[in-house]
Automatic annotation (TrEMBL), chains A, B:
Xref: InterPro entries: NAD(P)-bd_dom_sf (IPR036291), ODC_Mu_crystall (IPR003462), ODC_N (IPR023401)
Name of protein: Ornithine cyclodeaminase
A UniProt-annotated Pfam family: OCD_Mu_crystall
Domain of life: Bacteria
PANTHER family per record: KETIMINE REDUCTASE MU-CRYSTALLIN
Residue stretches spanning the membrane: none
Protein source organism: Arthrobacter horti
Amino acid sequence: MARFVDVRTMVRWAADRGVEDIITGMIGYLEEDFRRWESFDKTPRVASHTSFGVIELMPTSTEEEYGFKYVNGHPSNPVRGYQTVTAFGMLADVHNGYPTFLAEMTVLTALRTAATSAMVAKQLARKDSQTLALIGCGTQSEFQALAFRAALGIDSLRIWDTDPAAMEKLVRNLEPLGFTIEITGSAAECVDGADVVTTCTADKANATILTADLIRPGVHLNAIGGDCPGKTELDAEILNLGEVFVEFPPQTRIEGEIQQMPEDFPVTEFWKVLNGTAAGRTSPEQITIFDSVGFAVEDFSALRYVRDAVDGTDFFQEIDLIASPENPKDLFSLVSAAAPLAV
Amino acid sequence: MARFVDVRTMVRWAADRGVEDIITGMIGYLEEDFRRWESFDKTPRVASHTSFGVIELMPTSTEEEYGFKYVNGHPSNPVRGYQTVTAFGMLADVHNGYPTFLAEMTVLTALRTAATSAMVAKQLARKDSQTLALIGCGTQSEFQALAFRAALGIDSLRIWDTDPAAMEKLVRNLEPLGFTIEITGSAAECVDGADVVTTCTADKANATILTADLIRPGVHLNAIGGDCPGKTELDAEILNLGEVFVEFPPQTRIEGEIQQMPEDFPVTEFWKVLNGTAAGRTSPEQITIFDSVGFAVEDFSALRYVRDAVDGTDFFQEIDLIASPENPKDLFSLVSAAAPLAV
């Protein structure tokens, strides 16, 4: 039997444990996996594009454990009442290839994206950071806020979205949780005075959410909305203002903000910062930029974390995914009408 | 909610409906999909190899529907009491990317492989074929026998396996179902007088199960065990005796029997035979060879068939795989501790 966490159970678990507590735990698993980055089989994601959107499979593996995520991206979904992104994922035992754990990953991806942002900011943002600017108040925004509070103690937010209802939703969700929130009137006003800036907008185009003149010295810029070919958020000039950190260069050069830059544009792989083999922030004035696109290893860490965290609780069910005839060569015995029906 | 057929339910359904009836229905879906072969997005499979075996994702898509299969291949599994191959698969709606149907595919792959063999033999074997030689009496063997009886009316079997217990198992499973079965003492003896020959052995090596002198005029050879790089069953000389038919040439040239042949070795794509744009068997004396490796479209057909066949029955359950917040931008509302716990 494999274990399975469905949407209802993931939601119940997250509400019970608390998002900040989960993100804190998940950062530990992410750091563990980023530190052993070189031991992962980093297959490129497999995308199936149609006129409606994209469906992707994101596999990765160590010598012990295999994982993949199914995820779609359909920008036109919200106007039709659907989620832009839905996902589920799986872990398997590399030794015998048997699936061990399945989980919904729509909620889990929101948690892991925020946890990844916070893991990176823990290394790159100024230690005295107090204010987070959130540009884009969609699905990811509240998770970002909670992740930065959990990891860096930031509880002061400046927010901006072209949709006032999205900003009101964020205030409604986060003010009861103790955040100080300032609604601003533009992206320029939003980033003014912020120590950390998260851009997370959904427009599938080469947008210019921020221009170089708005980025002050010492800022850590967490750019997560530019995450597929043709979808960027930053004026290219911003990428020349500081050091750019990425997850996996071959993927980021196609999907990230740096798709706007030459092939040999210099970047630092974040796992090296964590390992101490590359420099992170080198001065309080430096501008650091995390060009985040989301990578399979992060989903792997998130799945591992949930699997371990729900062990010993009732936050999972068992599902019957692996046929087990008594004699491995006699699969037919299971479906023979003469066979007992229980397996 | 997505529908889910677990192992227990797949087995119950197969026993209730009967394997031959299922295979007959599945052949119809396979033929429908092979006829529209050109409308499929035929992504190559994504394999993760380790010293223990391989784990693969096999996606394919039309403009309406997306499907993929997770499948492992671990040759050393049976000696440790595990199945060599386990699998599960999924269908999704291309319009919004939402998963619609999940199923175990260990049993289902056995059914679809046999159904594919039978679909091809219906076109290529002599109409007066009466005897099937089965070389290799493992997991797939009983399904092969039932598929050939369902599609061609063949009920006389000659069998061979290096493991006597495997042959006894086949007799035990199939004799009660009305087959006439002759246990033979070698591959040479097994194919003697057979009209159709299925080779389905598990040895992961370049084996020579059959040599060219054993292949009589008029035989249809269904070669399914040679299905990954370095794993073949036939003496290369056999491939020069007749016409070779394949599923998807770019994959078969890497994985099939023709991996032994030059890059430009001539083959016929089976879907063209079905469409009438390529010749099938051209004379009673011709030797026809199906170099089968298994392709994602076949899994897609099998999943579609099961989904439709169990509709209106109790042979599925519903699972909660897609987060559906009332406001698509407000995923956080689901996990807020203040939110009602039911979703």
